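Minutes, structural biology subgroup

Action item carried over from last meeting: produce the structure token record for Putative HNH nuclease YajD (Halopseudomonas litoralis). EB confirmed the sequence was re-checked against the source entry. Recorded below for completeness.
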Amino acid sequence: MTTPTKSRPWRHLYNTKRWNRLRWYQLQGEPLCRFCAALGHVTEATVVDHKQPHKGDEELFFDPENLQSLCKTCHDSTKQRQEKSGYLAGCDANGWPLDPNSHWNRTPGG
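Output recorded by EB:
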């Protein structure tokens, strides 16, 4: 059995001052869960998520443009399904797909 540190050697980055500061600023700037908001729900965000998995790439890890605020439920379920399947399942309150890469979300000619 592998330990979390051996399978994910970048775990130590989450214990740095730099990450804690970045996490705080992210939650201050986006205090509500992005996925819940797309569904028309108001839920406090408690997790700062990397939109694109960083896999130890420190530049991507600390990139504020790669961050989004999520509630723990969305992070641990919806986001995990998205990473495994390659798309974000579900629709917003207006019936539009949540996945920004859906063909329904593309602009004509784009």
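Discussion: Strands lie at 47-50, 67-70.
Next step: EB to file the record with the rest of the batch.
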